[in-house]
Amino acid sequence: MIPMAAHRSLVFQPGEEARVDAFLARHADSSMFLRSNLRRAGLRDRGERFDGTWVGLAVQDELVAVGAVFWNGIMQVQAPRFPAALARGLAAASPRPLRGVIGPWLQVVAARQALGLEAVPCHTESREDLFGLRLADLVLPDALKNDRVSVRTAAPGDLELLTRWGVDYDVELKGLPADEALWRDNRASAEAFVAAGEQFLLEAGDLPLATCTWNARLPQSVQIGGVYTPPSLRSRGYARCVVAGALRLAQQAGVDRSILFTAVQNRPAQRAYQAIGFRRVGDFGLVLFAGDHAVSAGGSSVGSMDPESSGSRG
Fold first, then answer.
1. Is pLDDT of 93 > 60?
2. 23: which residues sit within 8 A by CB, 6+ positions away?
3. Range of lowest pLDDT (43-47, 53-57, 176-180, 254-258)
4. Domain 132-283 is of which CATH architecture?
5. What percentage of residues in the chain have a pLDDT greater than 70?
6. How far apart are CA 159 and CA 5, in angstroms?
7. CA angle, corner 274, sides to 273 and 278, nearest 5?
8. Containing H/E element for 215?
9. What kind of architecture, by CATH, is found in domain 4-127+285-305?
């Protein structure tokens, strides 16, 4: 067994992207956010969307853990070894307070404990099942195959609807108050997704039925997020249709794999995704704090600030 003292902490700088991605690619299914943000922004941290402070752990010259604290205060970890040490290194290096921890579930638990944040209030604390799909195995629902419904890329004219649905999503699933900050955050998220061509609408004629996003994107893979159907339109198979339609568009763009995650207790969602070909490949964790938490280098919470907008859908 390698002693704990054998690992050393690294704060990555621009120019080391290939080394970081090579490690993350070995854990590809649970590293989609990390790899997508790395591809978009590199290892810079100027506080802009997708930027982050990146830290790794190495044993001799081999990376064994990588993580980042991103522009939105979310710590993301990929640490099959030493997750607690990685979390402490990230907290020490990051210039911003924490708003949550995301990554493989047991790593999230270990990181949260190492930072002394087990007892802080959360608006989301969820163990998730991680699902993967080779797009060659995608099963199209009959409603899509028969053109009773269709999926298109969202456009600027859809922003009011997408913002409203985003707020409804956060209120229902995360218990957030529908205040001005939440509306502003969801408007910004919708604008970013639409501008990137990464949000999709399911329609019957001109009637919008459901939406989803690619919340992380690489040349050969996409991660599905933000799946939402209004309550009055549920239990009609629209969630699986919008996801399948968005993945058909991804396949046409040369993508060959997709990842998504959903809460372990959300059996209807699991059945919907399995019906179009997804299979469980692991687990994931989402812990989003009800507030921003400054964390000392020693790993204890040293204060909490008033909560801001949620950064809800990636």
1. yes
2. 56, 63, 66, 78
3. 176-180
4. 3-Layer(aba) Sandwich (3.40)
5. 92
6. 51
7. 80
8. strand 207-218
9. 3-Layer(aba) Sandwich (3.40)
